[in-house]
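pasting for the record
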Amino acid sequence: MDPERLGDRTTVGIFFRAAARHADRTLVRHHDGEAWRPVSWNAFAELALRVAARLVGEGVAAGDRVAIMADNRLEWLYCDLAIQTCGAVAVPIYPSTPAAVAQAIAADAGVRVAFVADALADGLRVDRPVAMDADLPAWVAAEPDPELLAEVEARAAAIAPDDLVTLVYTSGTTGLPKGVMLAHRNLVDMARSCLEVFDIGPEDESLSFLPYSHVFERINGVFAGMMAGASTWIARGVPRLADDLGECRPTIMVSVPRVYEKMHQRVMEVVRGSPAWRRALFHWAIAQGRRRSQRAGGAAPPARRARGAGPGAPPADRRPAALLRERRGAAVGRGRGLLLGAGHADPERVGHDRDGERRHVQHGAAAPVRDGRAGAAGSPDQDRRRRRGPGAQPRQHARLLRQPGGDGGGARRRLGCARATSASWTVTASCASRTARRSCSRPRAASSWRRRRLRRASCSGPAIERAVVIGDERPYVTALIVPDWKVLEAEAGVSGRPEELLRDERARAVIQRSVDELNAGLGSWETIKYFELIPHDFTEESGELTPTLKVKRRAVQQRYRDAIDTMYRDRVRPGSQAH
């Protein structure tokens, strides 16, 4: 493959140019059950080319849809690159997707060939299923036909920036997944804008654990790293994440807010159990870091600010940071930056607001956290522009975006949340002003923007593991709250099976104080009037979380319908205090 023939605004052009530069350096490390195994740039490129040649031999034409349905693994990555290299379109499907939904996605996208985990091979009906353990090894072991390789190279050279590279389906928080069409330039431009903001280079190593089926990990976690020449460790899954952090010691990591919030919870548990002098030193260090960041104005990329924590840094980077490293794992000792995306974070656990903008930075810690979601303040698409642009009606109050990673439209199931206009503008469902937001918000107790504000605030109490605010089409706001039972045991002496403690007066009193503190800063119409406790946190297996750990509100409200109804049935509208 001659990389100079490939477009520099296509994913394959970016990869093969980087592979020519880095050659025998390590690109990926994966665990084979016995040890971590490195794979060089050259070896990875060879694997992708062999699979691409075989796809052409199987009759896959340019523009055909090829699905990948498996957990994160080395094969997922080089099959994805192979699909793109032969000019086809990759369609990732979450491995946890129910069979009927996965089949609907395959039918909607027009999938002909699918790379699937062996356990899922019988559940996806396509023309040519390829089992990753049973079939794929033979594909990569055989020497490719030179004529097929020549065809692959010709197709790769013909790829244009506007050619479709992937169909990404949503994770299903609002019903059936919807497809988004992304071109090569979308992935390349977003990755380039990431590297303009985040100081990532060939010396960096990332730990990749979010599902590759999600576009955030695929672009910000994998492709941006490839563009920078960095290397990636493929984690062994969320249950082994703590072990992998200690063994891999990454310098950068991409995650969803929930993981960082859990890290924060565990750190604060340790802080609360520490001697008074150590607690005071910890809080002093965090305050010092916050003041230092405010003086800096947030202009420098967080990774560079982290590098500055050396001889000239305040003492806050020493003893308190050592406490964090002890509890978070050795990875923090090398961590320069943690990228945040795929959801809204609790500002008290991950960062804080400054001047009305989100700055997801844990001040005083060794590794800053930065928001990487498209459209978020401080995110990579900083040059996005908002205005009432082409196609907007005078009273539409829609927000129009033009940004590096703007999507190319919807698949057959057209997106209800956005539509493309001329000149690369996208009309979103977001509103352009506070007045417009008020007129567009859902009726009665809890609009979506207010619900997010309440959720972030209601999760701030140390005894609250998670809270789901209820109020759409309701006369007042209530909440389902998952307590942190360890904190309740430490603070109130509450112990026993969670199911038996839901009506415990001591447990409810601790939660009540947290809710009252929240309500004190809210208007009477938006305060939480009642709450019900839930014994256990939500899980993906129970269908209450998406693969990116976002809450499926419909599923939660359906499961706890009786508990929700008790907060509204036969009750008059109360005052501002929760019960």
